[in-house]
């Protein structure tokens, strides 16, 4: 990896870590979900970094792809709260997540999640089979009496690309795929007291660019220009809800989805409505092991 690229990954990781530590004081039962998310996103911008994806805030059985609408007035409440944050410096991404238990009931689940992540991070090196990562994560979580979410994975990262190529399993799978030197990956175990599977809901507030195609309306062209500037990094519908009339925005986004210009990232929830936790770090695979950019 070129030194300049490495430095950008390290910088984005450092910013992400700082934002995470700063954000923990925001997670209170009386805090409005929208305020929390927008405050964190504002902090990333203050650091002169890019928001790599809309801040995700997932409550209780909601597992991923959850960010509020522009007019959301709900509060966090006494719940298990997952915060997933993405920071980019010139498109070089750091992806980090943590969970806060405001109920006081799920300390053991969070311990299982942290241990699974820690144990996975310890073994990372070139030529390691991804199946071994999944095995360590699964065995650790099950030793605490919980289940990993089998159909959510970690992922490879590239410049401006959050999910690039390789998926990193959270369970033991039959695969000969291996890690290679200079690969950038996010390790993110999800733990649940449910059945260990997530399903897609109908709710969608997050989208990402697939390809550029001509569009007719001025409003749609302007929106596409803003989306294109992010390359393939996901965006939130609410980012445009204050400048484009809601009915128009819905029509434009749906037209873009229908034409395969953008894709939807629907919210996931645990199939049996089990509580879900999540912890995540971003890692660069090195000649001798790995560097955790977000630690």
UniProtKB/TrEMBL annotation:
Pfam families on file: Peptidase_M24
EC number from the UniProt entry: 3.4.11.18
Q: Does the keyword Hydrolase apply?
A: yes
**What are its cofactors?**
Mn(2+); Fe(2+); Co(2+); Zn(2+)
Which molecular-function annotation in GO is an example for this chain?
initiator methionyl aminopeptidase activity
Q: What does this protein do?
A: Removes the N-terminal methionine from nascent proteins. The N-terminal methionine is often cleaved when the second residue in the primary sequence is small and uncharged (Met-Ala-, Cys, Gly, Pro, Ser, Thr, or Val).
Q: Which residues form the Peptidase M24 domain?
A: 8-196
Any stretches that span the bilayer, and where are they?
A: none
Q: Show the catalytic activity.
A: Release of N-terminal amino acids, preferentially methionine, from peptides and arylamides
Q: Which UniProt keywords apply?
A: Aminopeptidase, Hydrolase, Metal-binding, Protease
Highest taxon above the source species: Archaea
According to UniProt, the name of this protein is Methionine aminopeptidase
Protein source organism = Candidatus Altarchaeum hamiconexum
Q: Which SUPFAM superfamilies has this protein been placed in?
A: Creatinase/aminopeptidase, Winged helix' DNA-binding domain
First-tier enzyme category under EC:
hydrolase
């Amino acid at each position: 990896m070129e030194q300049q690229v490495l430095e950008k990954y390290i910088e984005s990781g450092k910013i992400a870590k700082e934002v995470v530590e700063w954000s923990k004081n925001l997670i209170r039962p009386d805090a409005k979900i929208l305020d929390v998310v927008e405050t964190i996103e504002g902090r990333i911008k203050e650091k002169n970094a890019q928001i790599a994806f809309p801040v995700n805030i997932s409550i209780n059985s909601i597992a991923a792809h959850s960010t509020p609408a522009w007019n959301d007035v709900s509060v966090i409440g006494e719940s298990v709260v997952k915060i997933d944050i993405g920071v980019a410096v010139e498109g070089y991404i750091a992806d980090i997540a943590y969970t806060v238990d405001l109920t006081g009931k799920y300390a053991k689940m969070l311990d299982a999640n942290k241990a699974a992540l820690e144990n996975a991070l310890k073994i990372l090196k070139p030529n390691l089979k991804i199946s071994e990562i999944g095995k360590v994560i699964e065995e650790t979580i099950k030793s605490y009496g919980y289940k990993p979410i089998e159909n959510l994975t970690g992922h490879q990262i590239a410049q401006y690309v959050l999910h690039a190529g390789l998926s990193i399993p959270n369970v033991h799978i039959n695969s000969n795929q291996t890690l290679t030197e200079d690969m950038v990956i996010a390790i993110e175990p999800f733990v649940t007291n449910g059945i260990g599977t997530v399903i897609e809901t109908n709710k969608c507030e997050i989208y990402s660019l697939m390809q550029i195609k001509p569009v007719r309306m001025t409003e749609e062209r302007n929106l596409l220009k803003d989306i294109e500037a992010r390359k393939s990094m996901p965006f939130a519908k609410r980012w445009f809800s204050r400048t484009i009339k809601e009915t128009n925005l819905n029509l434009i986004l749906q037209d873009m989805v229908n034409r395969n210009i953008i894709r939807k990232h629907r919210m996931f929830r645990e199939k049996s409505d089990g509580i879900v936790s999540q912890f995540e770090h971003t890692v660069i695979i090195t000649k001798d092991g790995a560097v955790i950019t977000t630690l």
